[in-house]
């Protein structure tokens, strides 16, 4: 397959999934919307994540094959209760900003109660 064909296939793949709500891979009630992604110069992705009432994320890590995985989460809307990000060793954390290594630190989100939670999430891999 030529470089141009590969690039076209990737572009079509991106367009088929970008800006559309999809179920989160944890199967715990959250949805994600791919905003932007690129493989060069630094591989990254960005998502809008929606946690409706009752959604949560169980404790897990996100291993990568090569390099270090970083993720910056910005909480855009918090629920009335729950929806708390849990990570033992974040790089930086305030009420609304969370920077952490999802490949190195187990992380989770507690069950959302009363309302919804929205997060802008940007991740990248550093070789």
UniProtKB/TrEMBL annotation:
<feature type="domain" description="Fe2OG dioxygenase">
    <location>
        <begin position="39"/>
        <end position="127"/>
    </location>
</feature>
<dbReference type="InterPro" id="IPR005123">
    <property type="entry name" value="Oxoglu/Fe-dep_dioxygenase_dom"/>
</dbReference>
<protein>
    <recommendedName>
        <fullName>Fe2OG dioxygenase domain-containing protein</fullName>
    </recommendedName>
</protein>
């Amino acid at each position: 397959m030529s470089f141009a064909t590969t690039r076209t296939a990737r572009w079509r793949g991106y367009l088929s999934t970008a800006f559309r709500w999809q179920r989160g891979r944890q199967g715990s009630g959250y949805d994600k919307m791919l905003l932007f992604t690129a493989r060069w110069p630094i591989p990254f992705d960005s998502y809008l994540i929606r946690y409706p009432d009752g959604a949560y994320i169980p404790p897990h890590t996100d291993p990568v094959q090569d390099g270090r995985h970083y993720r910056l989460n910005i909480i855009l809307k918090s629920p009335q209760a729950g929806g708390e990000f849990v990570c033992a060793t974040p790089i930086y954390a305030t009420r609304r900003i969370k920077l952490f290594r999802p490949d190195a630190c187990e992380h989770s989100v507690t069950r959302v109660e009363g309302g919804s939670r929205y997060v802008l999430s940007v991740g990248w891999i550093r070789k």
